[in-house]
């Protein structure tokens, strides 16, 4: 049996409040199981909003979002929270690490919230602790004293890697990353992306990676661009609730033979 798509979005519209313009108006966006996609777009074009919808943190006013075969738009907020904990790895723009926990305990969090992820970490590495240590080692954070440190005692680049290790714990089916390389210099950025892509591949996880840095796009199987809303939407259209094109996704291949949008 073929695995379900990692993500399928159809005719999705979202605005932050009733009088706001649509932040997202997306005819279709699909990620195949295990596919690695780069999402670009200027500031304010809706990238973080799109990730919040995919994560089930926000719910759209219209359209369907299906993640790993589960129709998110049919679930209650509480069920979406459970689904997110079980199946999604998220690297937030601000990392969202817990300052009072050590590096190791931050990375172990997904296995505390999800029995499924705990079980998958045990199957792959023997224990959640062993998996956390392996992932941190791959990301260059293996030293014992680093693992026991509070995350607040780490550099921003190190915190970014802790957030990546946490997202990968317990083999989530889909990893979403919001500008995870913004605080890194060019060399470290490339290195970080290589590691993230390799680890997603090893876990058979699909990856949706958001960045302004177009030089990273070639490392992904495909790129998707959310166009600048100001360029596409006449100001008069913004206040009405009629159809809009702002925030609509355009897709293009970055690899020969890869595809654009799929039904
Ligand atoms: N919490 C919020 N409440 C109201 N409006 C919001 C909220 N978050 C984002 N928006 C609006 O939604 C639109 C899209 O913002 P979003 O943060 O998704 O863009 P982005 O492409 O991720 O930007 P950046 O690259 O700067 O992070 C913007 O017009 C923004 O002002």
TrEMBL record:
Domain of life the protein comes from: Bacteria
Keyword terms of this UniProt record: ATP-binding, Nucleotide-binding, Transport
SMART domains: AAA (SM00382)
Domain named ABC transporter: residues: 7-260
Molecular function via GO: ATP binding
Start and end residues of each stretch annotated as Disordered: 236-263
The UniProt record lists the keyword ATP-binding: yes
Hydrolase in keyword set: no
One Pfam family hit: ABC_tran
InterPro entries to which the protein is assigned, alphabetical: AAA+_ATPase, ABC_transporter-like_ATP-bd, ABC_transpr_LolD-like, MacB-like_ATP-bd, P-loop_NTPase
Ranges annotated as biased composition (Polar residues): 242-256
PROSITE patterns found in the cross-reference section: ABC_TRANSPORTER_2
Name used for this protein in its record: ABC transporter ATP-binding protein
